[in-house]
Amino acid sequence: MTTPPVLAWRFDARAFAIALGLFVLLALLAIFGARAGWLRGFFGDVLAVVWLYFVFKTVMAARPVPLALAAFGVGCALELGQYLARLGHWQIANPVLRVVIGSTPDWLDVLAYGIGAAAVVAIEWRIDA
Question: Which long-range CB contacts under 8 A does 80-88 form with residues at least 24 apart?
Answer without folding.
Answer: 80/105
